[in-house]
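Sequence and structure are kept together here, with a separate record for every protein. A complete record is shown below as an example:
=====
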Amino acid sequence: MVTRRPAWAFSQQTARQVLAKHFGTAGLEGFGFSDAPADAQAIRAAGAVLDYLTETQKSSLEHIDRLLPYRSLGTLEIDESSRRSLEITRTIRDGRREGSLLWVLDRTVTAMGSRLLAEWVANPLTEIAAIRARLDAVEEFVGNQSLCDDLHESLTADL
């Protein structure tokens, strides 16, 4: 069954009023929201959801005590459950690195390189330009074995 909501429930003004009333604030700037279009859409959605919950739930909504803006920053956010089931950095069975995606990919020779690779694998890029730039860098190394050898030698010299 689909419950239709009136158009006014999704208006910016109504959403701001509903949220401000629920959180007992004069505005939403304290939660990290601005006048940016993406924030306006998030506020409208959050306000409509809270309005719907207020109307349909017969219990207190006091447990909803914060509002956090979503900021992707060019990387994909993966929830902990998905991270675990995909075995990105640890296996499900015993929680070890061996057998994970990171373990398969990691051929780094420094601790810093290993940490950087772990960060990249755990938080994949979402912006096309950044993905292409990273692929171009990989292509440069794949096509130039002497560069790879020189870099490897430089990185392992102090180990």
Remarks:
- The longest helix spans residues 37-56.
- The chain is about 50% helix and 0% strand.
- The radius of gyration is 23 Å.
